[in-house]
Records
---
Amino acid sequence: MKVLVVGGSGFLGGELVHRAAAAGWETAATYCSGRPGTTPGTAWHRLDLRSPARIDELLTEVAPDAVVNATSGQSDWAVTADGSVRVAMAAARHGCRLVHVSSDAVFSGSRISYDESCLPDPVTPYGAAKAAAETAVRLLTPSAAVARTSLIIGYGGSAHERMVHELVAGTREGVLFTDVVRCPVHVEDLAGALLELALSDRAGMFHLAGPDALSRHELGVLIARRDGLDATRLPAARRAGTPAPGALDVRLVSTAVQGQLRGAREFLQLP
């Protein structure tokens, strides 16, 4: 199996690269600005998703069986939306299996619980870019798997975990909202599920999130306790009624994938 991880230098991408190489897959991965260090069994390639010709050149050079697009350009439409469309078009031209990673940011939270049949209704620029990307991917490559996920947690390397440490240390301003609810997933579980999809021929939409719905503050407390920090130092507030953008309560419900993903209360429990 030969796999290309687009966005391999990111948090999720790095775990995908590690697991694929450890499984003996022939692994290639991309970065845009800072090249990662040497990764055994992995060939690194620079790729700017705003360069359509380079995407085709790379797929010709690597000739992967599967492409996993785990890149995140945040609200940069040229990367998150247009770039993902270019990857999908190139994968279709080269006959590659495509797994595209999307986000729960495509939802407004108006209905709270969302299964795979729910249509996007984003309320932020990032959500709109992700919604445009997944819609285009499904139209351009009907055989692709599109996987929506939620907050990704690991062993300290995720953005939310770093934020918790900085808030406790007092080196960062901000609060953890008590009314912003998501379904966190562990990066190892998510990467494993994505690679399983890459090996399969399953097409369509998949929700890959943990079964526990937690507020940002509840999640922060669990992280602090796991890491031996004083959770009482985490500032808490409600976001409702503030100008802060984004959905409040979004819970991904999976009807297509069962029993593979641990809840945050399990993977963040104390040793």
---
Amino acid sequence: MKKVDVVIIGAGPAGSVCGSLLKQAGVDCVIVDHADFPRDKVCGGGLTVKAWRLLDSLLPGLSYDFRPINRIRLQFENDAVCEFNAEYPIRMTLRKDFDNSLLQYYKQAGGELIKGSFARFKQQDDGHVLVRLKSGEEFLCKYLVAADGGNSRIRRQIAGPVDMKRHALFLEYYVDGNHHDDVYVHFSHQYKPGVFYRFSSNGRDMYGFASADTNEDYPRHLGKFRDTLTKFQVPEGNVRGAYIPLKTVCSPTDNVILIGDAGGFPNKLTGEGLYDAFKTAYNASRAIIENKSFKDTNSEVFRKMQNQQKVYEFFFSRFGFWLVRRLLHHPGAIKWLFDTKMKREKFTNK
């Protein structure tokens, strides 16, 4: 049995950022992940200004490849396209390379990565946590951090079976090469609640479809996505999919912390997950370093998740959808709302 202060399950953005912050503070920690990096993941890979500003402040000197995109195009059904240039660019990355850059930053700070798959954890009488991997390897730690994504085993041990009605289904398809230079989002009653989108990524165009109306009816949504690709004259190819949890879960104990997708922290309306992966990773590190409760250090994010659920329900209501359609006839107003939201966001609690 190995003894360590913190065990982090998952080497994605949330886990790697949390590990780097802990190493910077001199905390003994290890990250456990079953994947071989670099590895790809279903995700648009876009970092909004609030996300890359936060990341720059947390991991100074981090280097990663990205393609800056300022042009935003929004369309409702066959209405005129609402188009504007955002004040700050969205940094489009390839998750395969971006996640590996974060992991390498953690390693350069002296962090250890252990290849393995999480099995179970058990609270000990002395306040420690016993973590067991599928290989039989065990760790005794003060804190266990779940950063193992939407299918988190730690989350399932805490909260039970996943509620599929509180998940979003994301389908993605890639075309190599840079054929566009924008972020395009299409709204339609045909896939409400949900959207079709195209991101001009770094070295490829990424087409996606998001829907919260999953009901485990994957074939129907896949068919709808393929029909939409045909409508936009996109050649057929392999489609990848993933379910992302929308229900936020808080651990009942202070020494087990759920962050990123594992805690259900993606934006309930847009699906953006990287900003809150960084934010919750930072708040988890604060809880550990300062010996505080994650409920306290992450209270702002918990409140935001509750508010986002209300906004989501209004957005896809009959009146909300009608209002969005009317607003898209006024690009200046949409640009102001978009830029204002990006500048208003708080980046750290420092």
